[in-house]
């Protein structure tokens, strides 16, 4: 535990008391980041904590880590580590408080290999105890009952250097059929996000054979993504910079080669590695997925921070959207439900499933509905322009702005309308 003690000295000074708060914090959802390939062993005393750790261990953020959850608390841990080497991280739940807990941990410390971190889950919200634990090299103290997200955020803070550049959010866009406008929505939303927030966004076009990102931004891009995927271990920030094509101040594209004379064998692992490198250097990564189903497409969807499913209002789209949605809900229990975009609605003379029925069948509300507008979308597409550039007043432009803000978890970035009543309304909490 001695190394851990050194690591914690700085942390200790800046530790706000709020960190010993109990319960799940909704806002922390966005903060939990993937945990590296470490071994984690937990020794719980309460069934509830064991269940929470079990749920967390099945979360996408912990897929790389090896987690095992045992019962028996500190006593079992001491017995176990007398015989076996300690893992990268030990999680100990103790029902004791104060000196009794410290004595248990001192005993455990005798068997801890240097470099092993310890996280303690306790049942008393006591800042003095917290400080005492940190002094002894404990990396974090969480007060039960804990929620899976809170737990994962605690771990994520241990393994993601707070001084390092923030790890980017990854959004995946997939169509529930081909040609429903998923790429169009991915490009417009990403572009507008980069414009409104003035922050860097990269669009990774994973439709290697037919991707349209280059065309949509009127670029003749370096076709970098295939190179990155074929030798992901070579990808670093310098190479990434060379492989990206800059479209505007804040938007770059990782473009598809769009050549048919080569075979594209993408492995889930190489996808994972490439996305990891990109998200280390940019705050927002939008992944434009083709409408296909393969192990790597599934993996990208499962690992993304958010998923946007675009569907046109017909039966095949409904069925496919339902299948994707169910798969994601099943495998991502701690994540937000995917966003549904109903695109190409209200097309003249085409029978369609009404929005309400579509939503009812899926059990979610559409995050946006975009009408079919062949003139607007056709022209933008032929010009290599975004809808906003062509017609900022179009309803679709407003929809893309709202969608971008929704994905970034921000309120509308336009200046607030001021009314004489605003301060009073605010006081009365009648405005958001
Ligand atoms: N709301 C819409 N109205 C009219 N045309 C649209 C709309 N959304 C997308 N399109 C057009 O549909 C075509 C297919 O879009 P694309 O984004 O490539 O689909 P996908 O990526 O789902 O295969 C493009 O030509 C695009 O301009
Ligand atoms: Mg597409």
- Principal-axis shape: elongated
Physical arrangement of strands within the biggest beta sheet = 8-9-7-10-6-11-12-13
CATH topology (level 3) name of the largest domain: Rossmann fold
CATH superfamily of the largest domain: P-loop containing nucleotide triphosphate hydrolases
Number of helices: 18
Helix content: 40-55%
Rg from C-alpha positions?
A: 25 Å
Number of structurally distinct domains? 2
Largest sheet: 8 strands, mixed
- The amount of beta strand, in percent, is 15-25%
Average pLDDT number: 87
Low-confidence stretches: 1-29, 414-420, 425-432
User: What gap, in angstroms, lies between the N and C termini?
Assistant: 47 Å
Number of strands: 13
CATH architecture of the largest domain: 3-Layer(aba) Sandwich
CATH class membership of the largest domain: Alpha Beta
SS class: alpha/beta
Question: Which features characterize this protein?
Answer:
disordered N terminus, elongated, 2 domains, alpha/beta, Rossmann fold, 42% helix, binds magnesium ion, 432 residues, disordered C terminus, 13 strands, five-stranded parallel β-sheet, binds adenosine-5'-diphosphate, eight-stranded mixed β-sheet
Descriptive overview:
The strands form two sheets. This protein has an eight-stranded mixed sheet with strand order 8-9-7-10-6-11-12-13, sandwiched between helices. Helices cover 42% and strands 16% of the residues. The chain has two domains: 2-159, Rossmann fold (3-Layer(aba) Sandwich); 169-407, Rossmann fold (3-Layer(aba) Sandwich). It contains 18 helices and 13 strands. The chain has 432 residues and is an alpha/beta fold. It is elongated and about 75 Å long. Bound molecules: adenosine-5'-diphosphate and magnesium ion (MG). Magnesium ion binds next to helix 7.
């Amino acid at each position: 535990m001695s190394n851990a003690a050194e690591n914690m000295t700085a942390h200790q000074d800046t530790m706000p008391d709020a960190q010993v708060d109990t319960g799940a914090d909704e806002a922390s959802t966005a903060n939990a980041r993937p945990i590296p390939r470490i071994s984690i062993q937990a020794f719980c005393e309460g069934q509830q904590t064991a269940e929470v750790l079990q749920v967390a261990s099945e979360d996408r953020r912990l897929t790389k880590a090896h987690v095992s959850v045992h019962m028996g608390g500190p006593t079992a841990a001491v017995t176990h580590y007398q015989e076996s080497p300690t893992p990268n991280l030990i999680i100990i739940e103790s029902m004791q408080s104060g000196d009794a807990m410290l004595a248990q941990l001192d005993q455990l410390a005798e068997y801890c290999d240097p470099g092993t971190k310890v996280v303690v889950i306790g049942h008393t919200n006591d800042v003095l105890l917290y400080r005492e634990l940190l002094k002894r090299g404990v990396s974090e103290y969480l007060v039960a009952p804990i929620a899976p997200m809170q737990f994962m955020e605690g771990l994520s803070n241990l393994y993601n250097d707070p001084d390092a550049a923030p790890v980017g959010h990854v959004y995946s866009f997939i169509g529930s059929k081909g040609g429903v406008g998923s790429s169009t929505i991915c490009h417009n939303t990403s572009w507008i996000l980069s414009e409104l927030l003035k922050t860097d966004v990269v669009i990774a076009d994973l439709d290697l054979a037919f991707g349209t990102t280059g065309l949509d931004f009127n670029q003749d891009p370096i076709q970098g993504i295939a190179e990155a995927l074929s030798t992901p271990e070579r990808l670093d920030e310098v190479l990434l910079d060379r492989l990206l094509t800059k479209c505007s101040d804040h938007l770059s594209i990782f473009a598809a080669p769009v050549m048919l004379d080569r075979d594209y064998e993408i492995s889930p692992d190489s996808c994972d590695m490439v996305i990891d490198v990109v998200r280390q250097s940019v705050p927002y990564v939008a992944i434009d997925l083709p409408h296909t189903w393969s192990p790597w497409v599934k993996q990208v969807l499962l690992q993304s921070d958010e998923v946007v499913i675009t569907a046109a209002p017909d039966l095949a789209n409904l069925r496919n959207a339902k299948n994707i949605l169910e798969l994601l809900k099943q495998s991502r229990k701690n994540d937000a439900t995917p966003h549904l975009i109903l695109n190409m609605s209200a097309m003249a003379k085409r029978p369609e499933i009404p929005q309400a029925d579509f939503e009812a069948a899926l059990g979610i509300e559409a995050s946006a509905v975009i009408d079919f507008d062949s003139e607007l979308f056709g022209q933008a597409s032929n010009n290599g322009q975004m809808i906003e550039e062509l017609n900022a007043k179009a309803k679709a432009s407003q929809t893309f702005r709202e969608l971008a803000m929704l994905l970034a978890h921000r309120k509308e970035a336009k200046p607030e309308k001021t009314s004489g009543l605003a301060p009073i309304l605010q006081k009365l909490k009648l405005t958001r």
